[in-house]
Amino acid sequence: MNRLDEVLAAHGGVARWQQVDTIAIDQIVGGVLWPLKHVDGILEDSTVEIRVQDQRAWHRPLPKPGLRSAYSPGRVVIEHDDETHQVVETLHDPRASFAGHTLETPWTPLQLAYFAGYAMWTYLSEPYSLTFPGVRTEELGDWQENGQTWRRLAVRYPDSIATHSADQVLYVDSDGLLRRRDYQVDIAGGAPAAHYMDDHREFDGIVLPVRRIVHPRDAEGRPVPDTVTVSIDIDDVTVR
Questions:
Q1: Of 119, 132, 186, 198, which is most buried with the most CB atoms under 10 A?
Q2: Distance from the Cα of residue 52 to its chain's centroid
Q3: How many other β-carbons are positioned within 10 Å of the β-carbon of residue 217?
């Protein structure tokens, strides 16, 4: 069994993931990124819903109660969170709106919706999304961290998948569970990140981590633990 097959099996298996249409969660979000981007408090206590088989995601409330965001790679909207789904604002080609951004550049609510949409779709659909057309993986050498040996898997995402950066590295523990991912946040000046995943639990046949924490990453590939860029605590997971 190769490394990707092992990872897929540990998280519920491809056959089960192929049956899943939607994953919905409640989340508590923290970290220094949000005040830095002038969007503090919007996602602090929110719900996320993703479409597993397609790159769609919804956050509510965003940016305030009664409204929600609807994300797809080429278009983000803020709309009424009722049966009408009346559109309030639209951002076409959202990735282009981040041209020239640095880590300190403020975000609009629509830009926050784009970032949060692609990020949570990436997190909640993995490792199944690694089987999508155009995604390439390559096994790298082992990595020692906190007395553990993690195996590394390089991932190259195609242009058709919006995510932090085209090239990322996943770290896999001895049970085949994803424990860390490294990337650069292209839409925030290429800021390097070390993103940790813990407390993996099974929900209706699929396995997801319910604790995520992101630190800056130094030139040697080590996290900068004194700074928490983003934290995500997940609860009330529904798989449909």
A1: 119
A2: 13
A3: 19
Asked if residue 148 is part of any domain, the answer here is: yes
Question: What CA–CA distance (Å, rounded) separates 123 from 114?
Answer: 14
* Residue type present at position 90: T
Instruction: Please write the tens of the pLDDT for every residue from 81-96.
Output: 999 999 999 999 999 9
pLDDT attached to residue 3:
84
- The residues facing 47 across adjacent strands are 26, 60
Flag whether pLDDT at 1 surpasses 70.
Answer: no
Please return the burial class of 117, using the count of CB atoms within 10 Å of its CB with bins 0-12, 13-18 and 19+.
Answer: buried
Q: Calculate mean pLDDT across residues 163-179.
A: 98
10 Å Cβ neighbour count for 218?
A: 11
As a whole number, mean pLDDT of residues 160-176 equals 98
The CATH number for 72's domain is 2.50.20
Amino acid in position 197 = M
Containing structural domain, residue 97 = 3-235
Distance CA 107, CA 113 (A): 10
Question: Would you report the helix, strand and coil content of the chain in percent, each value rounded to 5?
Answer: 20, 45, 35
